[in-house]
């Protein structure tokens, strides 16, 4: 493979970004069709297996893409994989803005919303501390903590776009993404059963599941597996977390920008990517205008499809040898953040969400 240090963006299901380390420049007029056909077919296989066996679709897309990573050796696939991992990712994230409104966040009430922020802060702090303990970078802690606190793989991709590969390499990002997906699948299966065991009410169970399960679809599904009322509560709580995606991404950009040499943030470095601004714009539109339900449902379906293809294309561009080099230390911040998120959400459910 031609190795010239060009950058490109890639992404995951539910909205996130990372920069791959290598890309073969596309020849003028090169067709995106071969690459799109390959990652599109792999995505259809992931969707079929997820439907048949109830396995997390994002994790399946990631694993199938990694298994087919050899296809990126063919230069004819490069333009299509690049297009999917860059443009489909961004478009999918923007469309997610139609799934959240300001009213949904405000309906929680100040006490519950403050507790939710406390849960998110606990996840962030645990990941940063764990990363420091095992010798990982602050960027690794931010990525693991943000993905756990907000909306799983989607948030990981967005935050990686802000962090950049100069602070965190692609291999560590890929391992973190796998860890987040597995942890979310375990949480979706385990937390409803634990809530039943301790006798939580529907409100308490909805808060626990919505505040601590990483992936949005799995948090909502886990809530409804407990009861319809718990599912409705989990949906509102989880959407409130998703709504924090743009503010937290902006905060991370400010934080990292201000830590550059000289201690002053460069507005060029901390400016939010266009897809985040698009997400925020649609969120505002959805908050002030009654968007028809069929349109919102169609946008969600299209967004999920785009993000599935994007994460599959991203995995196809990953180097398996680099994944093996990262070791267990990369997963430690994810584990710490997940445990902290659960314990904080459990405590908040006991005292606030009764």
UniProtKB/TrEMBL annotation:
<feature type="transmembrane region" description="Helical">
    <location>
        <begin position="270"/>
        <end position="292"/>
    </location>
</feature>
<feature type="transmembrane region" description="Helical">
    <location>
        <begin position="83"/>
        <end position="102"/>
    </location>
</feature>
<dbReference type="Pfam" id="PF03601">
    <property type="entry name" value="Cons_hypoth698"/>
</dbReference>
<feature type="transmembrane region" description="Helical">
    <location>
        <begin position="53"/>
        <end position="71"/>
    </location>
</feature>
<comment type="similarity">
    <text>Belongs to the UPF0324 family.</text>
</comment>
<keyword id="KW-1133">Transmembrane helix</keyword>
<feature type="transmembrane region" description="Helical">
    <location>
        <begin position="175"/>
        <end position="194"/>
    </location>
</feature>
<feature type="transmembrane region" description="Helical">
    <location>
        <begin position="108"/>
        <end position="130"/>
    </location>
</feature>
<dbReference type="InterPro" id="IPR018383">
    <property type="entry name" value="UPF0324_pro"/>
</dbReference>
<protein>
    <submittedName>
        <fullName>Sulfate exporter family transporter</fullName>
    </submittedName>
</protein>
<feature type="transmembrane region" description="Helical">
    <location>
        <begin position="330"/>
        <end position="353"/>
    </location>
</feature>
<keyword id="KW-0812">Transmembrane</keyword>
<feature type="transmembrane region" description="Helical">
    <location>
        <begin position="239"/>
        <end position="258"/>
    </location>
</feature>
<feature type="transmembrane region" description="Helical">
    <location>
        <begin position="142"/>
        <end position="163"/>
    </location>
</feature>
<keyword id="KW-0472">Membrane</keyword>
<keyword id="KW-1003">Cell membrane</keyword>
């Amino acid at each position: 493979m031609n190795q010239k240090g060009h950058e490109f963006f890639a992404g995951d299901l539910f909205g996130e970004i990372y920069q791959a380390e290598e890309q073969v420049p596309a020849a003028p007029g090169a067709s995106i069709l071969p690459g799109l056909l390959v990652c599109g077919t792999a995505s259809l296989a992931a969707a079929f297996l997820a439907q048949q066996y109830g396995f997390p679709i994002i994790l399946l897309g990631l694993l199938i893409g990694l298994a087919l990573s050899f296809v990126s050796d063919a230069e004819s696939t490069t333009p299509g994989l690049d297009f999917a991992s860059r443009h489909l990712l961004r478009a999918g994230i923007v469309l997610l803005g139609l799934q959240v409104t300001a009213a949904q966040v405000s309906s929680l009430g100040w006490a519950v919303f403050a507790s939710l922020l406390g849960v998110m802060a606990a996840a962030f702090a645990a990941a940063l501390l764990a990363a420091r303990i095992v010798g990982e970078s602050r960027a690794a802690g931010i990525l693991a903590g943000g993905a756990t606190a907000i909306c799983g793989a989607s948030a990981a991709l967005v935050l990686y776009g802000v962090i950049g590969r100069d602070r965190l390499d692609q291999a560590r990002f890929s391992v973190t993404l796998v860890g987040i997906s597995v942890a979310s699948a375990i949480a979706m299966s385990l937390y409803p059963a634990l809530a039943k065991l301790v006798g939580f009410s529907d409100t308490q169970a909805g808060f626990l599941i919505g505040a601590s399960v990483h992936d949005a679809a799995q948090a909502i599904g886990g809530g409804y597996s407990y009861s319809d009322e718990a599912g409705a509560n989990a949906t509102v709580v989880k959407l409130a977390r998703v709504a924090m995606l743009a503010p937290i991404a902006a905060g991370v950009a400010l934080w990292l920008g201000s830590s550059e040499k000289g201690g002053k943030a460069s507005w060029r470095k901390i400016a939010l990517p266009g897809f985040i601004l698009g997400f925020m714009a649609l969120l505002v539109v959805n908050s002030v205008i009654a968007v028809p339900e069929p349109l919102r449902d169609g946008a969600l379906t299209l967004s999920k499809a785009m993000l599935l293809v994007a994460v599959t294309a991203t995995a196809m561009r990953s180097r398996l040898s680099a994944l093996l080099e990262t070791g267990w230390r990369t997963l430690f911040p994810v584990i710490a953040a997940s445990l902290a998120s659960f314990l904080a959400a459990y405590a908040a459910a006991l005292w606030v969400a009764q």
